Amino acid sequence: MTPTERELDAQLAEAYWSTRERKTFAVDMAAGDGRRTTYRRTIYVRARTAQEATDWARDHRSMFNTPKQVGFRARLAGPIELGAHPAKAE
Fold it and tell me: For the residues of 30-71, what is the DSSP string, one character each?
């Protein structure tokens, strides 16, 4: 996904999820030694807030075979990331 598509996806995600109580968050998990990343994974979690999504991922980290030291970052999942494709205009 190009940076322009990522930006569009983030804008669409904000607009779509703003009216819903429960949202889908993409939780990025990453670990490394500072110079290079040794572990990276993205999981999708349904929650009310980004903090709830991060807490769920942290509590269930054994399901994903994460290293002991791993960072978590939650963001709203956008439609392009979730597999939606724009409809062609007729």
Answer: EEE-SSSEEEEEEEEEEESSHHHHHHHHHHTGGGGT--SS-E
Mean pLDDT value of segment 32-42: 88
CA 71 – CA 57 distance, rounded (Å): 11
Cα–Cα distance between 51 and 25 in angstroms, integer?
Answer: 10
pLDDT of residue 90 exceeding 80: no
Our measurement of the distance from residue 75's CA atom to the centroid of its chain's CA atoms, rounded to an integer in Å, reads: 5
Are the CB atoms for 27 and 74 separated by under 8 Å? yes
**What is the rounded average pLDDT of the residues 21-29?**
95
Q: Is 16 left (phi over 0), alpha (psi -120 to 50) or beta?
A: alpha
**In this structure, are residues 9 and 1 in contact, taking their beta carbons and an 8 Å threshold?**
yes
pLDDT exceeds 90 at position 77: yes
